[in-house]
Specification:
- The protein has helices at 5-8, 30-35, 37-43, 78-90, 109-116, 175-191, 225-228, 234-246, 262-269, 302-315, 334-338, 345-357, 387-399, 404-414, 417-420, 451-456, 461-474, 476-480; strands at residues 11-14, 47-50, 94-99, 128-129, 149-151, 158-160, 195-198, 252-256, 278-280, 289-290, 293-297, 323-324, 362-366, 482-486, 493-500, 503-510, 516-519, 530-534, 545-548, 553-559.
- The protein is α/β, with parallel strands linked by helices and 560 residues long.
- An eight-stranded parallel β-sheet has the order 9-8-7-3-2-1-13-12. Strands 14-15-16-20-18 form a five-stranded antiparallel β-sheet. A three-stranded antiparallel β-sheet has the order 4-6-5, with no helix packed on it.
- Strand 8, helix 9 and strand 9 form a beta-alpha-beta unit.
- Helix 6 (175-191) packs parallel to helix 8 (234-246), helix 12 runs parallel beside helix 17 and helix 13 (387-399) packs antiparallel against helix 14.
- The longest helix is centred in the N-terminal third of the chain and has 17 residues, at 175-191.
- The radius of gyration is 24 Å and the shape is globular.
- The two termini are 18 Å apart.
- The chain binds 6-O-alpha-D-glucopyranosyl-D-fructose and calcium ion.
- Calcium ion (CA) binds next to loops.
Length: 560
């Protein structure tokens, strides 16, 4: 096992729009992040990943970029950015920027030039194709509903957009596009940033010819994973970027990847291949969806979670590395989804934290997770801001005639705005996030769930995270240890061992709100073990037979 700083790091993800507003316009900003750096230091994280902060029409909140080398006016200026970066470095924090280069905004000068001049050099930066009669060029659907093709304004052709129609896909087959990407990545690298989180980066190589998906009915459309994910040239493109920018500037990288399994992830992350450090998988995120359709709800199952995590832990153990997350700006709140956001909110949030921070990989904390922030239910569809939610509602209700109440239920469970409500800093109006009107509703539970209260309470989820992060610094086994499950078939308890050099951990987690008993093989947890952390005031002493309370989590440590 090769040791590396980014394997030992814990990353904190900031959604700048919702983090902290300092000028009362209801939108978070860079000065707000600056104000809260000491909070992050107190928590003990090492790296901050900033969701996009570049100029953007905000059709998809910054994931539609119109200038890759500027700062969104709402968020501040380049001076603010430079100050933020140097203040981060002064505190020992590293900065990871979001690199969104599968697509640009339709308001990006490249796309505007492509529209203006169909014969000019920018046309081939994108995918423009003729339609078929009155239909789009093929049967591909966008990730956000409706066709992946839009007729160009005032022109004859269609352009491809795997996300919203304001996010035209870049054509990476064009060497000029790859050149631009290297240049803009290098612009930030030269400023001294420490890494990139790469948005849907395995979609950059499309199957040549953009063929129709097989097996669809006349007029039917579908997201074309088969022809847009892990395409023929993706590794070549990533290696080029790695050779020219990532390695020369020693950047930490994580690629967000739709439709990867561990075998594919090995190709992206193996240390000898010089592509990326790690990927964000979706396999565990898909376990409460029917057929990969996030809006078709089904309950997640512990056995399936164990199977997915176990497989990733095992398959990436040699020469590769995992990222570990249970929520982000695209996913519902972890405590609402996998724990209990009612009576056992605190216990279950701590249990889930224990889980993530005791697996092999680099953990990612999404803002507010350390407070146990929860999902939200807003009464009217008009109260929502996320383009994915709004498009889905429109398509589901208007095109497919689904029952609006059922559609709203799915939005309450899965919608991205669950994660995007403003950070809850205090019990002051608007949770201390803004003195103005927040761009998205604040969760009314801020009076109880907020950073100020959490910092004062030694038993809070916040302080539990601090302890977990401190333990990772102290015990290498927590970072590098291998993963071996124990009693994998247990219906309620997730138990596993980690071993590294002379040290071992035994982790036992009750994933449900009812008491659970577990009989471990003899000697699994030796008598002389000590407890590193647990989420109740007392804990079961080392034994092969454990009785666990609801959502109880215990980490035992012993020497081999
Ligand atoms: O949000 C999702 C879960 O349903 C996905 O469909 C999501 O769009 C996918 O995870 C890709 O996400 C990334 O790229 C999108 C952007 O909207 C997301 O915020 C970003 O994380 C397009 O840039
Ligand atoms: Ca602001």
């Amino acid at each position: 096992m090769k040791e590396a700083w980014w394997k030992e790091a814990v990353v904190y993800q900031i959604y700048p729009r919702s983090f902290m507003d300092t000028n009362g316009d209801g939108v978070g900003d860079l000065r707000g992040i600056l104000e809260k750096l000491d909070y992050l230091v107190e928590l003990g994280v090492d790296v901050v990943w900033l969701c996009p902060i570049y100029p953007s029409p905000n059709d998809d909140n910054g994931y539609d970029i119109s200038d890759y080398q500027g700062i969104m006016a709402e968020f501040g200026t380049m001076e603010d950015f430079d100050l933020l970066l140097s203040e981060m470095h002064r505190r020992g924090l590293k900065l990871m920027m979001d690199l969104v280069v599968n697509h640009t905004s339709d308001e990006h000068p490249w796309f505007q030039a492509a529209l203006r001049d169909p014969k000019g050099p920018y046309r081939d930066y994108y995918f423009f194709r003729d339609g078929r009669e009155d239909d789009p060029p093929n049967n591909w659907g966008s990730f956000f509903g409706f066709s992946a093709w839009e007729r160009e304004p005032g022109g004859e052709q269609y352009y491809l957009h795997l996300f919203t129609k304001k996010q035209p896909d870049l054509n990476w087959e064009n060497p000029a596009v790859r050149e631009e990407v290297c240049r803009l990545a290098e612009f930030w690298a030269k400023k001294g940033i420490d890494g990139f989180r790469m948005d849907v980066i395995n979609l950059i190589s499309k199957t040549p010819g953009l063929p129709d998906l097989p097996g669809l009915k006349e007029g039917e459309i579908k997201v074309p994973h088969l022809y847009c994910a892990n395409g023929p040239q993706v590794h070549e493109y990533l290696r080029e970027l790695n050779r020219r920018v990532l390695t020369p500037y020693s950047l930490m990288t994580v690629g967000e990847m739709i439709a990867v399994d561990p075998q594919k992830a090995r190709l992206y992350t193996h240390e000898d291949r010089e592509e990326l450090n790690m990927v964000f998988t979706f396999e565990h995120m898909d376990l409460d969806a029917v057929g990969g359709d996030k809006w078709k709800l089904r309950p997640w199952r512990l056995d399936e979670m164990k199977e997915v995590f176990g497989r990733w832990q095992r398959e990436l153990a040699e020469g590769c590395w995992n990222s570990l997350y249970l929520n982000n700006h695209d996913q519902p709140r972890m405590v609402s989804r996998y724990g209990d956001d009612g009576p056992y909110r605190v216990e279950s949030a701590k249990m889930l934290a224990t889980f993530l921070h005791t697996l092999q990989g680099t953990p990612y904390i999404y803002q507010g997770e350390e407070l146990g922030m929860t999902n939200i239910r807003l009464e009217h569809i008009e109260d929502y801001r996320d383009v994915e939610i709004l498009n889905h509602y429109k398509e589901a209700v208007e095109v497919f005639g689904q029952n609006p109440n059922e559609v709203m239920e799915a939005i309450y469970t899965k919608g991205r705005d669950n994660a995007r409500t403003p950070m809850q800093w205090s019990d002051q109006p608007n949770a201390g996030f803004t003195t103005g009107t927040p761009w998205l509703a604040v969760n009314p539970n801020y009076t109880v769930i907020n950073a100020e209260a959490a910092r004062k309470d030694p038993d809070s989820i916040f302080h539990y995270y601090r302890r977990l992060l401190a333990l990772r610094k102290q015990y290498k086994v927590m970072v590098y240890g291998d993963y071996s499950p124990v009693c994998e078939e247990h219906p309620a308890v997730w138990a596993y061992l980690r071993r590294y050099q002379e040290e071992a951990l035994a982790i036992v987690l009750n994933f449900f709100g009812t008491p659970a008993e577990i009989q471990l093989p003899e000697g699994t947890i030796p008598q002389e073990s000590t407890v590193l952390i647990s989420n109740y005031k007392d804990f079961p002493s080392p034994s092969d037979h454990l009785s666990l309370r609801p959502y109880e989590a215990v980490v035992y440590h012993f020497h081999l």
